[in-house]
Amino acid sequence: MQRVCFLLKVRQDRLEEYRERHAAVWPEMLDALSATGWHNYSLFLREDGLLVGYLETEDFAAAQAAMAETDVNARWQAEMAEFFEALDGAKPDEAMKPLTEVFHLA
Q1: Residues 6 or more apart from 38 whose CB is under 8 A from it?
Q2: Catalytic annotation on 22?
Q3: How far apart are CA 25 and CA 28, in angstroms?
Q4: Single pTM value for the model
């Protein structure tokens, strides 16, 4: 299983609404994530907007590609894009660049 961690930056003025949106993720989005191989997926948000994401998957590129093919993901990404800084025209899920793992306690 591949462990993936990534960073994004939520706009300071949208932190509360970002939390609210993730307290009520659409059921069809949750189903799509599970069906496309996203497991043990967590998001952690710091007060300055730093967002740390973590997930486990067999193949991150394949999981991203499978999600990109779903209608629900296209709708979710379109709604969530305005919450982030420095996407440079990318959708939030396209801006998720995995960090290099340097240590893991098994």
Answers
A1: 55, 57, 63, 67
A2: yes
A3: 8
A4: 0.90
CATH of the domain at 12: 3.30.70.100
Assign residue 76 a region (left: φ > 0; alpha: ψ between -120 and 50; beta: otherwise). alpha
Q: Is residue 104 part of a domain?
A: no
Digit-coded pLDDT (tens) for 1-42: 999 999 999 999 999 999 999 999 999 999 999 999 999 999
Catalytic residue among 3, 19, 22, 75: 22
Structure tokens at 47: 């007060």
Are 93 and 73 in contact by the 8 Å Cβ rule? The answer is yes
Q: What is the domain range of residue 6?
A: 2-94
Would you give the DSSP letter of residue 13? G
